[in-house]
Amino acid sequence: MQFDLSKIVKDSKWFTFKSTDGEQEAEVEITPFLADEEDWIIGDETFTIKGSSRLDKFVKHLKKWKKILDADGKPLPCNKEIKTLFFKYDFCPELVNFVINKAGELRKTWEDSEKN
Questions:
Q1: What is 4-68 written as a DSSP string?
Q2: Does residue 18 contact residue 28 with C-beta atoms inside 8 Å?
Q3: Most buried residue among 20, 69, 102, 115 by CB atoms closer than 10 A?
Q4: Burial, 16: exposed, middle or buried (Cβ in 10 Å; 0-12, 13-18, 19+)?
Q5: CA dihedral angle for residue 74, residue 80, residue 85, residue 86, rounded to 10 degrees
Q6: b or e along 71-107 (b: 16 or more beta carbons within 10 Å of the residue's beta carbon)?
Q7: How high is the pLDDT of residue 45?
């Protein structure tokens, strides 16, 4: 069997996040999910092996951001501590959902390109 290992290195991609109320906007860099992060359902859905938690996915796949500011208008660092605070204290649940959904879409896009 032959495998092209260069294909397993997946690049991140920048997206523009806009809240549904139109008041919040940011640029976010996101990486795709990997196979071990997704839930696996065995048989007739009676047994599920859980993938990564939503918090783990948010922290891992949100690589960088722009236009995310503190109360004084200064850029917040995009680090594990700040991303965890965002998630745990529900600062912007729309951003969390956006990152997780885009990371999943990037994996799907990659899987589809592998089939062609």
A1: -GGGG----EEEEEE-TTSS-EEEEEE----GGGS-EEETTTTEEE----HHHHHHHHEEEEES-
A2: no
A3: 102
A4: exposed
A5: 70
A6: eeeeeeebeeebbeebbeeeebeebbebbbebbbebb
A7: 60
Return the pLDDT at 74: 95
What pLDDT score was predicted for residue 54?
85
d(CA 110, CA 50): 22
Is the pTM higher than 0.85? no
- Helical pair 80-88 and 54-61, crossing angle rounded to 10 deg: 140
Describe the crossing of helices 80-88 and 93-115 by its angle, rounded to 10 degrees: 110
In which order are the strands placed within the sheet that holds 13-18? 13-18, 25-30, 62-66
In 3-state terms, what secondary structure has residue 80? helix
Residue 16 pairs in a beta bridge with 27
Tokens of 49: 């092996």
